Amino acid sequence: NTANYLISTNHCTLKNSASYQAGKVGDAFRFNGTTAYVEVPDNNSLDVPDAFTVNAWVQVDVLNVSQTIVSKGACKPNAIGYVFRLVTATEGLKLTAQIGAPGATCGTINNGEEMTTNPVITDTNFHHVAVTYVGGTTKDMKFYVDGLEVQTQVLNPAPISINNTDRPFLLGAALVDNAGGPSFPSIFLDGLLDEIQLYSRAL
Fold this sequence. Notes:
mainly beta; seven-stranded antiparallel beta sheet; disordered N terminus
């Protein structure tokens, strides 16, 4: 239980009341849904040029608010890298992932892609969630929940390469624009994150 928690060779910092709590495997990160997040400084090992896998154990306390699992980048031109979130729906929370190539802006598919599942999180228990992406000629994205594939889609057009931004890697939040000024964390997770893993290939 230290702020120098190690993710591979990357140390992270707990921000704004982020804390630890018993999780799925040992201790997990606890987020309050309003201000708390964990920040990992930019590092080349967190860049994913044309393929990736993100997976984690997640437990949410509320089902009626969109929340972020992990993100790297911001909602600005040339700043989107990748974002893995939970989005509200009538029946629960949907998984969504957005990737951007150089020149991409949030809210558009120009130089970027976004994919969203049907509602898959419908309770406040722990669930293992994962997203994989393969670029090149494959161009597909897949979502998994508790080890089962829940959706796959071929992206077209797909980015040639995912934008490697100099923004930090965040757990439990995503950066958004501030009317053209500095970006700030938002879309906070309300719950627990455990065993977060990032790979620069699709598993």
